[in-house]
Design brief:
The chain is mainly alpha-helical. The protein has a domain at 23-79. The protein has helices at residues 6-21, 23-41, 46-64, 70-79. The longest helix has 19 residues, at 23-41. The radius of gyration is 15 Å and the shape is flat. The mean pLDDT is 88. InterPro entries: DUF6076.
């Protein structure tokens, strides 16, 4: 078993705590995981994933800055779902 240094463990715990307390980051991570899974299964290609990812980062940052609401961000993420 590989032993991780404290700085790796602490960073992981901080990231996990942020995801649990910040609803914006939580919905972003969920959507990112969904799209990454679709990429792995071949539903979308790498270019589509990259394009979506850059748009999602921009929208996430705008939401964190208060330029758009969480509902607007969530609605955009829901529209980008592949069925």
């Amino acid at each position: 078993m590989k032993i991780k240094p404290c700085n790796e463990i602490g960073a992981s715990r901080i990231c996990t705590a942020k995801l649990q307390t910040d609803p914006i980051l939580k919905v972003y991570k969920k959507a990112y995981s969904r799209m990454d899974s679709q990429k792995c299964w071949g539903s979308i290609d790498q270019k589509e994933f990259n394009d979506w990812s850059w748009q999602a980062i921009e929208k996430r940052d705008r939401c964190l800055a208060g330029e758009i609401s969480l509902d607007e961000f969530q609605e955009w993420l829901d529209k980008t779902k592949k069925r």
